[in-house]
Design goal:
The protein is mainly α. It has a domain of about 120 residues. Strand 1 and strand 2 form a beta hairpin. The chain starts with a strand and ends in a 5-residue tail after the last helix.
């Protein structure tokens, strides 16, 4: 902050204030003054606390094991799904290539058509061939999709069955 002097009208700078206490004059603190008083914990409380800690550690270990199992199941599921998706995509590309080949054969045959009757006969044959090919490709793709879905679900089913078995084997007093 600055104050204006009446004679010159110029602001006059204020002096910075001095620190409260120089660092060398800070009071010395003895840490032993802040130690909590020693209290004798009854044996029963100590045993209960130890049991609680042991149970917590046991639960933590079980949770870690369950998390590791779940992670493995998920990793296996993703791997199977990725492989299945790649296989499915290969089949789709094969179908597209096959359909393209059939179309180009049809176009080549059309170039040699001499009459409208021949054109009609060739067109009907081509449509019939395409419908049969598409029906077969659809069956193959549906069967592959079902196979992939079953394979992908298998690790999850195993994991759930494992958890159910562990729960069934648990003692009733737990």
């Amino acid at each position: 902050m600055t104050d204006a002097t009446p004679a010159t009208g110029k602001p006059k700078a204020r002096r910075p204030s001095a620190p409260l206490a120089p660092p060398s004059e800070l009071p010395k603190v003895d840490p032993s003054q802040f130690e909590p008083p020693s209290i004798e914990v009854p044996t029963a409380f100590r045993k209960i606390a130890e049991q609680g800690v042991a149970q917590a550690e046991d639960a933590c270990e079980k949770a870690k094991a369950a998390a590791a199992e779940a992670t493995n199941a998920i990793e296996e599921t993703y791997t199977i799904a990725a492989q299945g998706t790649a296989e499915y995509n290969r089949k789709v590309v094969e179908a597209i290539c096959s359909n393209t080949d059939i179309f180009f054969h049809f176009v080549r045959a059309l170039l040699n058509v001499k009459s409208p009757a021949e054109f009609l006969k060739l067109s009907v044959a081509h449509v019939t061939q395409q419908l049969e090919a598409m029906a077969e490709q659809t069956k193959e793709l549906a069967a592959l999709a079902q196979k992939i879905a079953n394979a992908t679900a298998e690790p999850i089913k195993k994991g759930v069955n494992s958890v159910v078995k562990k729960v069934d084997q648990r003692p009733l007093d737990a």
